[in-house]
């Protein structure tokens, strides 16, 4: 197990191995392969390329390197094209406070039986006119 997998239960590690093709022996190599693709897109400002961040995208794409890189690139392209959305992205911002009051997704304190976070949406509270 690597430091990137620390805190995961044996069941979660096994699930990652079976369902996501995650291999602790090649984890750093997998991350580096995605990181090496960053230079192919000089038009994108990749703000983060640390191991833990790239690992999220690898897991989201079941360790298919190119697909993980494509998702990473799309994420930063979106951020780049919508700078105003991410300028003051703080919980103290009035717009963010209102979104939270309106029922914007929130996380439950407890995890599901697989140890995953549970997100809750209160769509009925959303005011579409704002």
From TrEMBL:
GO MF, one example: phosphatidylinositol bisphosphate binding
GO terms classed as biological process: lysosome organization
SUPFAM superfamilies xrefs: CRAL/TRIO N-terminal domain
Any Pfam family the entry gives: CRAL_TRIO_N
Transmembrane annotation, as ranges: none
Domain CRAL/TRIO N-terminal: 50-75
Topology with respect to the bilayer: Peripheral membrane protein
Protein's name according to its UniProt entry: CRAL/TRIO N-terminal domain-containing protein
């Amino acid at each position: 197990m690597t430091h990137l997998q620390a805190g995961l239960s044996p069941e979660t590690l096994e699930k990652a191995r079976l369902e996501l093709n995650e291999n602790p022996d090649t984890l750093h190599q997998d991350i580096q392969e995605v990181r090496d693709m960053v230079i192919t897109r000089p038009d994108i400002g990749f703000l983060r390329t640390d191991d833990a961040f790239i690992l999220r995208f690898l897991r989201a794409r079941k360790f298919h390197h190119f697909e993980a890189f494509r998702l990473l690139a799309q994420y930063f392209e979106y951020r780049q094209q919508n700078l105003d959305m991410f300028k003051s992205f703080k919980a103290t911002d009035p717009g963010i406070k209102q979104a939270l009051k309106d029922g914007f997704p929130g996380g439950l304190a407890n995890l599901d039986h697989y140890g995953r976070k549970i997100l809750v949406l209160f769509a009925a509270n959303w005011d579409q006119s704002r």
